[in-house]
Design goal:
Elements (H helix, E strand, L loop, with lengths): L1 E5 L2 E3 L5 E8 L7 E7 L6 E6 L5 E3 L7 E6 L4 E6 L8 E8 L6 E2 L3 E5 L2
Parallel strand pairs: 2-11
Antiparallel strand pairs: 1-3, 3-8, 4-5, 4-9, 5-6, 7-8, 9-10, 9-11
């Protein structure tokens, strides 16, 4: 299974970005998927997850601002990030698995929120 993340970049506070993570070599529809992030000097944290059945969960820090979704026809999971704050700056990683998250990892994509 390979996960390819994209969509990071530099954005001003209050702006938006959409991350994408495309999966190959797997039965994507059966995988739970999620996005993690790791800021410098901090531990990696779960930002948002979506089960194979479409149930979502979010970290308190992003609830109401971020939206995770999936398109099984495109083998892709998305993270729409709105109202971005400087503290959202981190390397974002997508992850997936059949029994839970963490079985497979994509490469990170840098998100920088700065004026």
């Amino acid at each position: 299974v390979q996960l390819q993340a994209s969509g990071g970049g530099l954005v001003q506070p209050g702006g938006s970005l959409r991350l994408s993570c495309a999966a190959s070599g797997s039965i994507f529809s059966g995988m739970h998927m999620g996005w993690y992030r790791q800021a410098p000097g901090k531990q990696r944290e779960l930002v948002a997850g979506i089960t194979s059945g479409g149930i979502t969960n979010y970290a308190d820090s992003v609830e109401g601002r971020f939206t995770i979704s999936r398109d099984n026809a495109k083998n892709t999971v998305y993270l729409q990030m709105d109202s971005l704050k400087p503290e959202d700056t981190a390397v974002y990683y997508c992850s997936g698995g059949y029994g839970g998250l963490g079985g497979y990892w994509g490469q990170g994509t840098q998100v920088t929120v700065s004026s």
